[in-house]
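User: Teach me something about this protein's shape.
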Amino acid sequence: MKLIEKYSIGTGDRFGRQGAAQIAAFRKAREQGIVAAIVWNKSSREHMFIGSSPADQREAADRAICAARWNGPYHVDADHIGLATVERFAPFCDYFTLDVADFIGAKPDTEAVDEFMKLHGGLLSEQGAPARLDREAMQAAASRYLAAANQAGKIYRRIVELRGADDFITEVSMDETDRPQSPPELAVILAALADQGVPVQTIAPKFSGRFNKGVDYLGDLGLFMSEFEEDIRVVKWAPAALGLPSSLKLSIHSGSDKFSLYGGIGSIIRKHDAGIHLKTAGTTWLEEIVGLAESGGDGLVMAKAVYRAAFEQIDQVTAPYLTVVSIDRQHLPAPEEVERWEGGQFVAALRHDPSNPGFNPDMRQLVHVAFPVAAKMGSRYLDALAANEPSVSRNVTANLWKRHIAPLLLV
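Assistant: First, the predicted structure itself:
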């Protein structure tokens, strides 16, 4: 089994053009004593929208690593895969995010629940257990999550069939669902995954509050931190109690731009000597648009064209992401208004700086999910990136290092 590093950041980008800029952020981190693995992630859905493939993803990552002469740890993630999509990723990835959220709540076999209770009925009432559940509550949790764990087992075993058991990292994702999982429920989930023989190293639960794309956390910060610390205690307990890998850690999905959380999360993981995985890939696409607008000229023209297309196709571009965006359409500027903006006004609206009175979180969320409109522009968009590379790269690097890695991991 390949082991995940203690700290890892899910990066990558929609069009595979920002590898060098992202590596530059990790180089700055290493200069400050922070060692974090780069995990280039891209989902089957994103490949479909862009017209790329897992082979392209691997090639872009390897090319960037080689060109930058980067000798730090890195992996390529098959993000949010299931049985229907795993085969096309298997030859090219060494990190697999098994998305089983759709199976949460599916009715499991009654005998499976009974067997789980025989094995684990007293687990969370024992001395030293990090979370408490009575038998009735534990049985209810098992009934809710066993089918999802069973599906994770099927996907994991299929990956083993395709590439062997020794050269990949397994993450399990349960975040894209309506109801958050409590710390005791997380313990039940991990026990069920252990029963399935899934050597999960990162687990992505759904936390309380909203993790909308491209904007800060919405919710009770105190409640989140309390819940997060309890979750950390669960994942620190699980390896010895359940036989899971000692490298097990929490993964935070839609983790980019959650600026109000990073300081508290960093303090908690250091307190407990715990690892963390933070997925941030989507924010890089936004920095491409910021960099284009900041360049002015044809770059600004392209940024405005992307916004106009996103505005006009808002229903289509938001449909796949309705659980992770909250856009007030009344707050979106009309494309005709945006056409009159100078570059600085566009940048102020889109760059995630809540202290700037020009910042527009609704516009930022819309552009975050609008990368398919740029994909339809083809070489026109890619040529604009190449022509304005200095500005784009500068924004990508600064965003990843100054706004994400440093606040989370720099003491």
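Now, about its shape. Residues 7-282+402-409 form a domain with the TIM Barrel fold (CATH 3.20.20.70). DSSP finds 18 helices and eight strands in the chain. If you'd like, I can walk through any region in more detail.
User: That's plenty for now, thanks!
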